[in-house]
Specification:
Layout: H1 3-16, H2 23-33, H3 39-60, H4 62-69, H5 74-100, H6 105-125, H7 137-148, H8 157-167, H9 172-198, H10 205-227, H11 234-251
Helix pairs in contact: 1-2, 1-3, 1-10, 2-3, 3-9, 3-10, 5-7, 5-9, 6-11, 7-8, 8-9
Length: 252
């Protein structure tokens, strides 16, 4: 992988991770169509670059994390623990499937577009209302199970979890906060599981540069997204992007 490719993919990761579009899918598509990478190689890069956005989440939510480590917020600790464990129920077998399943490139691309349209529809139909809601074990388990499906390229982790949390009657700002916090333990675990599944543990200097780019851009993105969470029209942008990706798939 060239340095330019790694940095560009890192920027795309940092921009898309916190939006209800699949950062994994977008990085995979960019690697394939901008740099002519094979899907499996692009997918591997996409998964690794989540390290950068995990760092940005650790920095942004450092106060919440300190509270968890001090056990000052027991409800949040239990919510994240249960959601992380339940994520493994769906994520682990789907990761193995994603690494070994041979899908024609055109079909893969069309699937990503369809998934994007589905996420857009979910956000379009959710009602954003309510006040801060109590965290429960049941809601954490359900959100974790749904989060596990995001291991497949094209499915947005933030999109799926935010839609699920909104469906559980959490207000938008709280849904964003919980979704972003949920990403930290899960993406950290994937960085361990993925190389074990692949049997490869090497990381190039180029990928490290991409990780830094993802961390910096991710921190800026999450900061402004949290501030503007009540104003951004996610569904319209995601509908347009999904339609564009589907067209691209048919062109292939």
């Amino acid at each position: 992988m060239e340095l330019t490719e790694a940095v560009v993919l890192g920027i795309i990761q940092g921009l898309s991770e916190w939006l209800p579009i699949s950062s994994e899918g977008m990085v995979t598509l960019a690697g394939r169509f901008l740099f002519d990478s094979q899907y499996q190689d692009a997918l591997g890069s996409a998964i690794w670059l989540h390290t950068g956005t995990t760092i940005s989440a650790l920095v942004y939510f450092r106060n919440d994390i300190l509270e968890i480590l001090k056990m000052a917020n027991r409800h949040l600790f239990l919510f994240l623990l249960i959601s992380t464990l339940s994520t493994a129920i769906t994520a682990v077998p789907l990761l193995i499937l994603a690494l070994n399943l041979e899908i024609p490139e055109s079909l893969f691309t069309i699937m990503i577009g369809i998934f994007l349209l589905g996420i857009a529809w979910l956000h379009k139909t959710r009602k954003i209302s309510g006040q801060q809601k109590q965290l429960t074990d049941k809601n954490a388990f359900v959100a974790g199970i749904i989060q596990g499906f995001a291991i497949l390229p094209g499915l947005s982790r933030s999109g799926l979890t935010i839609a699920t949390l909104l469906g559980q009657k959490y207000p938008l700002h709280q849904s964003f906060r919980l979704s972003f916090l949920m990403s930290i333990p899960v993406t950290s675990a994937v960085q361990i599981v993925y190389p074990l599944a692949k049997g490869e543990f090497s990381v190039s200097a180029e990928l490290l540069a991409g990780t830094i780019a993802a961390a910096v851009v991710g921190l800026l993105t999450i900061k402004y997204l949290m501030e503007l969470s009540e104003k951004i029209n996610f569904s319209t942008a995601t509908f347009a992007l999904g339609a564009l990706v589907i067209v691209l798939g048919f062109i292939i």
